[in-house]
Amino acid sequence: LAKCAVVEPGSTVLVAGATGGVGQLATAKLLERGYKVRALTRKPDKTKQLFSNHPNLEVAAADLRQPETLSAVVSGVDAVCCCTGTTAFPSNRWEGNNGPRPTDYDGPHNLLKACPKSLKRFVFVTSAGVERRTELPWAILNTFGVLQFKRDSEMALEASGLPFTILRPSRLTDGPYTSYDLNTLLQATSGSRQEVVLSATDSLFGEASRIAVAEAIVQSLQSDVAENRAFALSSVEGDGPGQDAAKWGKLFSACYPSGAGAARSTVSV
After folding, report:
1. Radius of gyration of the chain (CA)
2. DSSP output for 127-159
3. CB–CB of 25/214 below 8 Å?
4. Could you tell me the maximum CA-CA distance found in the chain, to the nearest angstrom?
5. 233 and 207 in contact (C-beta within 8 Å)?
6. 196, 210 in Cβ contact below 8 A?
7. How many CB atoms lie within 10 A of CB 96?
8. pLDDT of 110-145, one tens digit each?
9. CA 169, CA 185: separation in Å to the nearest integer?
10. CA dihedral of 93, 97, 100, 102, whole degrees rounded to 10
11. Mapping DSSP to helix (H, G, I), strand (E, B) and coil, where does residue 91 land?
12. Which pairs count as long-range contacts for 140-144, CB under 8 Å and 24+ apart, including other chains?
């Protein structure tokens, strides 16, 4: 078997949704750890302002709904983090063709098709409930198809042949910090709920801190165990793994015990 590829600091990571609640925190963390970030955005001026024109930040104007804009922005990247999303129910965020299908189906599919085959990792943030769409309360959340579109995009990623990590957070808390600068983003904490629970199955409830999801993105890039795996994620009371790569490694590994036919697990540290 080919050795799993990890994405080390210094690599170029494309972040789609870099000004959103999870994407802005992931971008800040990636820059802090020494990655080069190419932020895919429809609002380049806002993106530059948010991240204080950081020297390792490249702002790439593109639109996931327009595939002809994507070939240049994915050229030469080592990894992609897709953190795009919209509201499950009609809201002002749907204006301008930003509803669930364009955001959670068309966009990710277009991005996948544009990615180079040399990509080392595609990290995709979706949602809890993608495999529980017919159960309450998820069936209500899926009224306009948001969970179905997210799951369809997950399956397209799984079938793409690209190395991937899928993160399925519970209801998001902490942020979005849409008017904050880079330094403030890096200082954000989730109070006493810093413990992270991961599961290999779509089985978690509760909440997930956007800070923890962003950290999971960064940690998964450097983890061979996280390659070609999906993880549900929730935040609970406790100290949690912080930025400790060894603790995150144990979390990832414990979800998928080695051995043929091993049961997939739910774990925390």
Report:
1. 17
2. -TTTT-TTSTTHHHHTTTSHHHHHHHHHHHHHT
3. yes
4. 50
5. no
6. no
7. 10
8. 999 999 999 999 999 999 999 999 999 999 999 999
9. 19
10. -140
11. coil
12. 141/88, 142/88, 143/88, 143/89, 144/88, 144/89, 144/90, 144/99, 144/100
d(CA 266, CA 233): 10
In this predicted structure, the answer to whether residue 156 has a pLDDT above a threshold of 90 is yes
What is the reported pTM?
0.93
How far from the centroid of its chain's Cα atoms is residue 57's Cα? 18
Give the tens place of pLDDT for each residue, 5-58. 799 999 999 999 998 999 999 999 999 999 999 999 988 888 888 888 899 999
Joined tokens for residue 263: 């049961």
What SS3 state is found at 80? strand
- The span from the CA of 241 to the CA of 248, in Å, is 6
Tokens of 26: 């992931």
Report the 10 Å Cβ neighbour count for 34.
11
Angle between helices 210-221 and 245-255 (to 10 degrees): 90
Residue 65: Cβ-neighbour burial (10 angstroms; 0-12, 13-18, 19+): middle
CB contact at 8 A, 61 and 16: no
Q: Is residue 67 classed as helix, strand or coil in its secondary structure?
A: helix
How big is the CA angle at 224 (ends 218 and 230), to the nearest 5 degrees? 70
> Comparing 219 with 263, which gets the higher pLDDT?
219
